[in-house]
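In this section we walk through a basic example: taking a raw amino acid sequence and producing a predicted 3D structure, encoded as discrete structure tokens. The instruction is simple. Fold the sequence below.
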Amino acid sequence: MKKLTLVLLLLLGANLFSNYSVELDRSSIPQEDSTFVLAPDNFHSNVNKMVTSLITRYHYKKTKINDSLSSLIFDSYLKALDASRMYFFAADIAEFEKHREDFDNFILEGNLQTAFDIFNVFKIRVNERTEAIKELLQNEFDYSIDEDYEFKRDKAPWAADENELNELWRKRMKNDALARKLSGSEWSEISSSLIKRYEAIKRNVNQFNDEDVFQTFMNAFAENIDPHTNYFSPITSENFNISMSLSLEGIGAQLQTEDEYTKVVEVIPGGPAFKSGLLKAEDKIIGVG
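The resulting token sequence is shown next.
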């Protein structure tokens, strides 16, 4: 019961602040911009303090916010960004390590700057790596060479330099390409498919806004208190409520991302899209007026 109460309180907290979030001026933030540096604001600092207060006071698991927890939050946040250790360099991690035991203080103070700084470095690395992948896929791989590829890299060392990271990605791309070749695909199709996959990842990261970064960091905190405790941003809370009630609100259509577009999977009978008659299944949305 206490765990359920906490979840409800966290959802309530997100909803209490949702009115403030829509008033923030984000009109200047582009839909996708790899150069845009995200930063926290007072709104997120206040929510951070409120969530921390709720967890420390009401969570059934009484956990001390100290250096030990800070270290766990640090590791969880890096894992949330780069679980396979294929983007950050060892030098990046060494720089971040200076703050390993500071995150408990950050959480208590509502100081989110370091968390955002880490994400901004991650975004740079994703964009750099996407360009390197496109260069790598210009020519087909030599599958006759006997070599190994390490799938599970969550505990592997971080790449020391660009040459080492390039080699890791060469093996990863070769492995992905070989799987497609064995299924009968031609190289042109293989390379195009892989480029689209990683372009989609880059696009997703570049579309992160400050709320997305904040939610990622707060979940690194909450999940180390208890794996079933999560922070929901207002939009995530709304989507959660939709999935729990088995109803779809808004335009009345089920959507999914396909390549660089959002595709209409199904138009829900009785909804706004259905009544307008303008939207059909398989339509691709290229812009919103």
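Looking at the output, two observations stand out. Residues 1-30 have pLDDT under 50 and may be disordered. The longest strand covers residues 261-267. In the next section we compare this with other chains.
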